[in-house]
Amino acid sequence: MSLPPGFLDELRTRTSLGQVIGRKVMWDQRKSNQAKGDLWAPCPFHQEKTASFHVDDRKGFYYCFGCHAKGDAISFVKDTENVGFMEAVEILAREAGMQMPARDPEARVKADRRSQLAEVLEQAVQYFRLQLKTAQGGPARDYLDRRGLNEAAQDRWGIGFAPDTRHGLLSHFKDKGIAEDLVVASGLAIKPDDGGAAYDRFRGRIIFPIRDARGRAISLGGRALDPNARAKYLNGPETELFDKGRALYNFRNAREAAGKGQPLIVAEGYMDVIALSEAGFEATVAPLGTAITEDQLRLMWRIAPEPVIALDGDTAGLRAAMRLIDIALPLIEAGQSLRFAILPEGLDPDDLIKAQGAGAMRKLVEGASPMVTLLWRRETEGRIFDSPERRAALDRDLRAVIGRIGDPSIRDHYRAEIARLRRELFAPRRAARPRGSARSRFLPPAPAMAETRGTLLASAGKGAIEEVLREAVILATLITHPDLIETFESALERLEMATDDHRDLQRLILSHAHDPAPDLRARIERDAGPHLIEKLFSLNHVRIAPSLRRADDRDLAAMCLAEELAKLDAARGARREVADAEEDISALADEGLTWRLSEAAKAREAAARGKGEDKGLFDRADNGVMLAREEKEALEALLRQIDDAKSQPKPE
């Protein structure tokens, strides 16, 4: 069976050699640089302990410095799977989602036709380049000169000009004996459906050749010189050679430049690519008249692990960035994502470079934002979150978006970063201290007396153990009742755990929040080992919790979770208020104030004990809410006494 020209090139382009070989070897992390596709491992073809087997993922070749084995993805599959050439091709094509050519006698005819179409396109490129140098090409040359593209640059990019005539190219091909149907099939001419005469597709336009990974012309793009033209840019149609959703402008040159260490930049169009490349950013590509597709994303990742999407800062550019996020989220992997460089509004890359120099563009690329930043911006920009319902709607939307991430580890990190951004958005902001306050009137503040340091204000940390135990009950309850996670997910995300173990458990619970399997405990033990679970459930405080003693009572578990979360929130809020109050009175501490504070502390402790009526931490489901309210009331009383202390004389 013969394969059509270009099939193997496309297969190699769409296949990651690192991924193919990575299934058979363990990469040496000390020697490998995965970001640059430079991978090392012990050779799979001979026994060795050192990493002498080298893979250049970008070029698609491997070589062993020990046994001298070498080849590409096809030869590797052949040798490791013990299959023939065509079987190896079929294996890789299936993994890459490519349809194998039909095994029929017409395959050779189709291959010959593709070769003919490629030759027709190459001749068209040469024809249009000659037209650019004629008198008719004067306006086009003037435009290119204004854009800073001299004759040498025009030759480098194969830029041409299509005169504004209906049959210029067709007449040229007719004189050369090339059949009209080939010109139409290549996308260079249009044949009306009503049977009328064919005519040139590109007229009155500057021409840009579109080439594949081998450098062959597979289509053309044209920019109109007439400002009133219906389409400013026009690409060739889908043909046997050209699939615009699976091609990138300047792919071949960008791949070579990225292999030398340049960052891969994704611009919007031909002129952006050319301007950036001429300014030194040679690893630049652009989609071809469509929004970036999944196949184009995979092509980009074959060149670089983190392409920088450089888009105009206008509404259309931002909208394109937001659409791309939805395409990329299910595909991102460890070390494989996107970054975004949003240009100043009204400027394209060429404008920015001309106005501020290549350094400004380089700074923009180096400071490109990670995808999670754009995701957060999309979900929050222009929205007001002044009610619990609106904040809940944001939580719902964020959960849905993050849930689309396929990689569990990345989903976990996204959830953590979104939780951090959410805390920043909703964190209470302290009111500015008014002028003339106690702190500003007494500088520097006098140190508090020893007796004052022993009061409630200075010893707020004494409740830390109690808070850790509350955290333990919350975590254990959620692990025992995973169906409650969705209800309490937002509260759990916002909770600042006091210990590393609790932070690890919090992260693991959230990472499995939307898993279909109910056995959360087993999943956590699988991910982190049994020690975290054993340590948590061995706590006596956890074992006696009603939500654990009566594990079959879901409603009781929900009530216990609400209670413990309310207690934690009240205790930590009170501690923050106490810290603020301590700052205010640090310059006023004396025996009288110390006495009043100690009395207030006793009052609070009495309230916390429930006035002797509390029969245990969990005996009444509403007891925690009552204590939280009493703690708040005691704190308010304390603060009132502080205000009184500032204005009353010390008792004799």
From TrEMBL:
GO terms for cellular component: cytoplasm; DNA-directed RNA polymerase complex; primosome complex. This is DNA primase. Contains an N-terminal zinc-binding domain, a central core domain that contains the primase activity, and a C-terminal DnaB-binding domain. HAMAP family: DNA_primase_DnaG. Belongs to the DnaG primase family. It catalyses: ssDNA + n NTP = ssDNA/pppN(pN)n-1 hybrid + (n-1) diphosphate. PANTHER family: DNA PRIMASE (PTHR30313). The keyword Transcription regulation does not apply. RNA polymerase that catalyzes the synthesis of short RNA molecules used as primers for DNA polymerase during DNA replication. Binds 1 zinc ion per monomer. It comes from Maritimibacter fusiformis.
